[in-house]
Amino acid sequence: MLALPIAESRPVMSVKHLLCLCSLLIPCSAFAFYGDPRPDAPDLAAPGAFSVGVRSEQLVHHDQIDILATPPGQHHDRPLRVELWYPASLKPGQLPGTAYTDVLGAGAHDPKRPNTPFQFAGRAVRDAAPTAQGNYPLVILSHGYPGSRLQMSYLTEHLASRGYVVVAIDHTDSTRADKAGFASTLLNRPLDDLFVLDQIAAWARPGSGHWLAGKVDVDHSALIGYSMGGYGALLVGGAGLSQTAVDVVPGGALQRLQAGTAAYARLHDPRIKALVAFAPWGGRQGFFDAQGLAGLSLPTLFVVGDQDDVAGYSDGVRRLAEGAVNADRYLLVYQNARHNVAPNPPPPAASANADDFSAYSEPAWDSSRLNNLNQHFVTAFLDQQLKGQDRQAYLTLIPQSRDGKWAMDAQGKPLPGHTYWAGFKNRSALGMEFYHWPAAGQ
Predict the structure, then answer these.
(1) pTM value?
(2) 2, CA 20 to 30 Å: which among 89, 194, 247, 326?
C-alpha cells in the first residue's frame, strides 16, 4: 500500500474573505454553506458540537485487475483520491470555510458536456488539527456514476460535526473527470471500499505516525453509497450478484462478487456495522436475486424517490429493501422524487448546461430540503447503529407522513393521539413515507 498525503493548505479566512467566498461560490440564499438547516429542518439536521476539519489523501491500490485493458488479464496500480472530514480543534480566530474544487461533465471526452472546473464553499477548515481526544466511528462514502468524492459534502461535513470521521472516495474510472467503461465500476466499487477501510485502519493504529492515529474506531464503521455507490455498499454488506449480473461482463470477471462463491464470502468485513443506500442501482436490472439478497444481514437504511427512473422504485430499490429479509431494514421514500435524492444542490456553474444541472437537481423537490432530511435520518440511523444512542423515536414512524396528527400541550409535550413524525415541526412533514422491516426471526 502506498499513501501519499496531498497538501492543500489554505490561509485562515477573515470574516470579510469568508463572506466574499460564499457570495461568489453558491447561489444567493439565506444559507452560507450547503447543508445549512432551513427553518423547517428536522431536529438532527442541525450541526453538531464539533468544528470540522478536512484533508485530502492520495492512495494507490497495487496490483489490481485492469478490467478495461486489452488484451484482458492485465493488472495495474489503481489510484484512489480520498477526502477526509473529522472533528477538529480550531485555533483562536480560525473561522469555518474552505473552497472545494470539482468538475462538471460526464467524462473527459464528451463534447456535449465538457469537463468544466467549478468551486463551491464548504464549512470545514482545510488541514485543521483533529481534536485531542476522541475515537470516532468511521463512515465511508461512495459516489454515483459518474460523480465525485465531493458530491455529498453537505452530509460529510454534517456527520463530522456530530462526531464521525468520514472518508469519501474518488473511484477511478467513475468520476466526472475520468468516466470510463462501466465494467470497472461494476467490479471495483466494493474492492475500493474495503481497501480504503484497511488503509484508514492502518492510519488509525496508535503509534502509526499518521494524523489519524488513535482517532478512529474502525470496528464501528458504516458505508454510505449513492446509486452505483449503493450497489457497492450492498455487496460489501453481504448481498451477492446474480448470474444475470455475472454474464454482463465477458470473461467471468464478476464471478468473485457472485452469491455463493468463496471470493464473495471474503468481501464481508465485520468492522462494517451498518449501510446507508441512496437509490442503489441493480435491483431493476436483475443484478440481485433472492439468493443474493438473502446474504445481506447488516442494518440498512434505504433512501429513494418513488419516481426514480434510473434505479427504479417498486421494481428496483423497494424490491431490494423488501427482499433483503435477513437484514434490519428501513426505507425512506421521497414522493415524486427521481434519482437525485442524495447530491449537493446544483452549483451555479451547472446552469449553463441542462444535463449538468439535471445531474444534481430534483424537478419536484428543493435540494436544500432533501439535504436536511438526509442529514436528519442518516444521523439518527448511524447514531443508533454505531454509537448505541437511542434514536428510536426518530425511526419509529407512521408510514405516511401526511397522516401524522399534531397534538402538543403548551409545554411542547405530546398529548394522546399525537402521531406526528418525531423531530419535525408542525406542518413540515409532508411528501414522505417511512417503513421498517425487522430481520427474519427478530
Answers:
(1) 0.93
(2) 89
